[in-house]
Automatic annotation (TrEMBL), chains A, B:
Keywords assigned by UniProt, alphabetized: ATP-binding, Kinase, Magnesium, Metal-binding, Nucleotide-binding, Thiamine biosynthesis, Transferase
Protein name: Thiamine-monophosphate kinase
Domain PurM-like N-terminal residues, every copy: 31-144
Signal peptide range in chain numbering: none
PANTHER family tied to this protein: THIAMINE-MONOPHOSPHATE KINASE (PTHR30270:SF0)
Source organism, top-level taxon: Bacteria
Reaction equation(s) it catalyzes: thiamine phosphate + ATP = thiamine diphosphate + ADP
EC top class named in words: transferase
UniProt region (Disordered), positions on chain: 307-326
Organism name: Microbacterium trichothecenolyticum (Aureobacterium trichothecenolyticum)
GO BP terms in the entry: thiamine biosynthetic process; thiamine diphosphate biosynthetic process
Residues annotated to bind Mg(2+) 3: 33, 78, 231
Amino acid sequence: MDPTVGELSEGRILRRILERLGESNALVGPGDDAAVIAAADGRVVATVDTLVHGPDFRLAWSSAFDLGYKAAAVNLADVAAMGATPTALLVALAMPDATRLSFVTGIADGLRAACRELAPGCRVEGGDLTVSDTLTIAVTALGALAGRAPVLRSGAEPGDLVAVAGDLGRAARGLGILFERFTDAEGHPVPVDESLLDHAELADLAAQLRPSPPVWLGPEAADAGATAMMDVSDGLVLDASRMAAASDVTIALESAVLGPDIASALAGGEDHALLATFPADRPLPHGFVRVGVVLARGQDAVLVDGRPHDRRGGWDPYRDWDSGTG
Amino acid sequence: MDPTVGELSEGRILRRILERLGESNALVGPGDDAAVIAAADGRVVATVDTLVHGPDFRLAWSSAFDLGYKAAAVNLADVAAMGATPTALLVALAMPDATRLSFVTGIADGLRAACRELAPGCRVEGGDLTVSDTLTIAVTALGALAGRAPVLRSGAEPGDLVAVAGDLGRAARGLGILFERFTDAEGHPVPVDESLLDHAELADLAAQLRPSPPVWLGPEAADAGATAMMDVSDGLVLDASRMAAASDVTIALESAVLGPDIASALAGGEDHALLATFPADRPLPHGFVRVGVVLARGQDAVLVDGRPHDRRGGWDPYRDWDSGTG
């Protein structure tokens, strides 16, 4: 028996979701008009990001668990990028009537697993269920700075080192594997046969479907004196250019440290690595790798090995989605 | 010139939205990986609610301004129902490529107007834009308790008075006007001709399209000793039965005070009035009207004029949506 959500009441679906989410950590958890979350230092970090069926995922490729995991992970990374520790998620889930209950509980399992692995102490503490023709998962993440100043995009100073924690290019390679090897003759997605993939390809695929950004390194970077930080969601060059613009500096990247697949590392999106700048006079925190230096603002926002880099990276949903779903 | 969002970059759309939202009130406002919002007493109230094209609104009936206004208002009411004052909204907006820029800025104008009129000091401080086949607006609202205990659904005690602040039944009558008078022969929505409506009907329509719950009375109710509170989103009887279940009491409603249209007042959803219980030994706070008393738990969660009331009210998207859009 695996009923569709259209066959169940909102209350019953909600109860089945709550069973999967575990104990609340909040002052007031799910079940009232709103949750109440501790914000011990008198501030709360808050961000929202949405996964939409079609532009953001294909159901032939992503399991329900994957979707819950990714929806949580991308938001946890945004909290980390401020130098904060995630404290709670709120999840707005809009689903077609024909969605199976097992799919919904799979999303809940993925949300919980991402919290457990990437941000222990953080839980889903509230949310909203509605019906929609388009499966949509909007996750709000809250976080605590524990007395730290938030680390903004705008604080990079000439002379700082530029460093990254987490993968670069893997998620984009994973997406390439999906489009190149798991589509039919018309280009429609077909299920992934993992037995066709080697170890490195499986890791790339996992980075795309279930990204695991180093959330715990966000607060560590802040404590180590990071002057600017952001998560790399749209590719290193594009996101570095945003940081450079916000800080009015030029970021000079060094490709030698980016591994063998430099193109993916520079332009590939969705890795959710942490990009940060640090004063040059002290060691980088463990987990961060130097990828460049900050220069006084020149003609270009970003240089790669001393030259402008004009290939636009990343993913712009308004330019790049081809209207496919699957 | 009114381009579609598909013709613009995410960055340009975002700039046009931010222009309409006014100055940030946050410690860190829009533009970084996350916002940072003050939470002076060490706690933050947080809730999310979503409007989806089809089940929640029809574009023939709701303007972009209406949608922004309603998406904000329903969430502001949830914050108020905890006894808190709204401090910030985060808005996840998923839109078809063909959406006009003027529609997006209309949503922004509606969000801003709702904050200005219902919760001064609250602003949109963050959000997310993505493309989707289904127009979807998920709003997260944050709020501050200013040292108050949150008012839960579970605190009603036998002997308390039951009271409501705000309209009951108006939004349901407004929806009735739309379905009865502004649909074509096939039942598809057609634009509203306001010249066909009298003053009372226009007010009912406004309550449906742009609800204005008494958000400022939430903290006042808490200060006046409210023992339980919630917002009436699914109809008085259904929501009172939820409060009764959470508090393990029976709520006895008195229909004489509900005005001439008792059926709509008991069963109509989407008014977002505040339902609260108060100790009987002190005056009700200004703006609240007595609608009943709390009894020790009996056989029925809710009584109306001493009798069980079995007509299910409210709106369950999983049971009630007919898949229409328009």
